[in-house]
């Protein structure tokens, strides 16, 4: 009986996850469409609200479809309380759960990830701090960008 359930559930879950991924790509594309100063100016207004609500909700839904039920104990620190949010050990797709639960903050990511089809657009909508492994000044530039965002008095989202 469990094999039969797997035969039915696997394609159903895969179809739902694909649909959610394409919806996330669509909303991310709309949010960054014709954005001035792409990546150097924070998203504001309806663009930021759309990313916070839709991508957070879609990510939570995707994890629910995969069988994860996440419960939050306590209160997530607000942007004024913690402009930089640290999540550890930062090593798997579970980082997406933390992003969804904290309102889709900016993240630190390899610059190469931004050119990945579909995922690159979604990642770009989060306004990541891009780290270039080929640039010898990358570490210094990354620290400077994180510091600039942390001291922006709420203009940039939290950085995780």
UniProtKB/TrEMBL annotation:
Compartments in which it is found: Membrane
Transmembrane segments: 12-34
UniProt KW keywords: Acyltransferase, Lipid metabolism, Membrane, Transferase, Transmembrane, Transmembrane helix
Superkingdom to which the source organism belongs: Eukaryota
GO process annotations (BP): lipid metabolic process
InterPro entries assigned to the protein according to its UniProt record, in alphabetical order: Plipid/glycerol_acylTrfase
Location (main, coarse): membrane
GO cellular component term of the entry, any: endoplasmic reticulum
Start and end residues of each Phospholipid/glycerol acyltransferase domain: 70-156
Protein name (record): PCAT2 acyltransferase
Originating gene: Lpcat2
């Amino acid at each position: 009986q469990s094999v039969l359930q797997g035969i039915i559930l696997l394609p159903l879950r895969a179809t739902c996850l694909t649909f959610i991924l394409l919806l996330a790509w669509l909303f991310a594309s709309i949010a960054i469409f014709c954005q001035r100063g792409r990546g150097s100016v924070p998203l504001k207004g309806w663009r930021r609200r759309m990313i916070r609500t839709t991508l957070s909700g879609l990510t939570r839904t995707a994890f629910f479809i995969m069988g994860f039920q996440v419960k939050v104990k306590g209160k997530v620190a607000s942007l004024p309380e913690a402009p930089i949010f640290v999540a550890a050990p930062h090593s798997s797709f579970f980082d997406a759960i933390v992003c969804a639960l904290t309102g889709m903050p900016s993240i630190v990511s390899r610059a190469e990830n931004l050119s990945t089809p579909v995922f690159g657009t979604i990642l770009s909508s989060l306004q990541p701090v891009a780290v270039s492994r080929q640039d010898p000044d990358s570490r210094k530039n990354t620290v400077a960008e994180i510091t600039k965002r942390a001291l922006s008095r709420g203009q940039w989202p939290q950085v995780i």
